[in-house]
Design goal:
With 323 residues, the chain is mostly helical. It contains 12 helices and 2 strands, in the order ααββαααααααααα.
């Protein structure tokens, strides 16, 4: 009888432990699921708030808010085409400068760097992403702009005779689309380099060995076997860098010149969507002005979301092809 009671008690204890474990698992699952849902819920909440505030401007102005160049607050005209143009041009300039540098750094760290040097250099490159944008802006004002005005712009315009083209013509003011592009290139470089380095390191060793066994040089192996295998991931890193450049505000506002005009010359001051919002948001005294700025923000939100979604898809595609 005592033995039966002991077995029954042991069975009840085991059942209780199983029930407690099941309860703990359910609590853990609920907490982690709720945590995972917070991020998309936050993005949706931000999008709803922005688009609701922008709705009056879209209803009144329609697509002209991003196609018109007439920004006259007193007259009730809000055309952000110069800001859209400046956003796209400065981001493209940044990618043209940053992409070869970032890929060069990634190839060096993944293929040529000795092991003792790889981690310190990679850390320093990644550290660029941790510097506050206002610090980049101050560096741009006190170092970059004087350098561009006194050395780089005259060299491009006069020494290389690029001033004959519309892209490098005009006076060398300093604050310009070129200055914004250089700042954005420095800020986008660690994102492109980090992603490119990871996808290059993930290329199977057999891919490299097969190319070398067929008689390829080390450079031919990298060019014909490694980079094509990691192409989608590298493009994803470039797209992430583009998304970073599109949304940058403070550093660009401090060096771009903030002139709402469309000019083909990179030496001319310009405007971006982010700098337009930063400069005028505190001065928006009427509802339509505020709604127009929110409409510009909504347009920038959509562009950045699409760019980052494409980048994530490209990186995921590379990861899935390796698994």
């Amino acid at each position: 009888m005592t033995s039966i009671s002991a077995r029954w008690l042991e069975r009840e204890r085991r059942t209780l432990r199983v029930d407690q474990s099941a309860i703990g698992d359910r609590i853990y699952e609920t907490v982690t699921t709720a945590s995972a849902l917070v991020i998309p819920a936050l993005v949706i909440a931000i999008a709803i708030a922005i688009f609701v505030a922008a709705l009056p401007a879209f209803a009144r102005l329609g697509i002209s808010i991003v196609t018109s160049s007439d920004w006259d607050v007193a007259g009730g005209h809000f055309g952000a085409a110069p800001a859209v143009f400046g956003t796209l041009v400065s981001s493209m300039v940044a990618l043209v400068i940053a992409t070869p540098l970032a890929i060069g750094v990634a190839v060096f760290l993944s293929e040529f760097s000795p092991p003792w040097l790889r981690q310190p250099v990679g850390f320093l490159v990644d550290l660029l992403a941790a510097i506050p944008s206002v610090v980049y802006g101050l560096w741009g004002i006190f170092v970059l702009i004087p350098l561009l005005r006194e050395k780089v712009m005259p060299f491009l315009r006069d020494t290389l005779h690029l001033g004959a083209t519309p892209f490098f013509s005009g006076a060398a003011y300093g604050p310009s689309m070129l200055a914004a592009g250089v700042i954005l290139a420095i800020m986008a470089l660690p994102y492109i380099s980090s992603v490119s380095r990871e996808v290059l390191l993930a290329v199977p060793r057999s891919q490299r060995e097969a190319a070398l066994a067929l008689g390829a040089t080390r450079w031919e192996m990298i060019r014909d076997a490694v980079i094509p295998y990691a192409r989608s991931g590298i493009i994803g890193g470039i797209m992430l860098g583009l998304g970073r450049a599109l949304g940058e505000t403070m550093a660009v506002t401090m060096v771009i010149g903030n002139r709402p005009e469309i000019s083909a010359s990179l030496f001319a001051p310009g405007y971006t969507m982010a700098s337009l919002i930063a400069n005028e948001f505190s001065e928006a005294t009427n509802d339509m002005h505020l709604s127009a700025l929110m409409a510009v923000g909504a347009s920038l939100f959509v562009i950045t979301l699409i760019v980052n979604a494409i980048a994530r898809w490209l990186v995921w595609r590379v990861s899935r092809s390796r698994s």
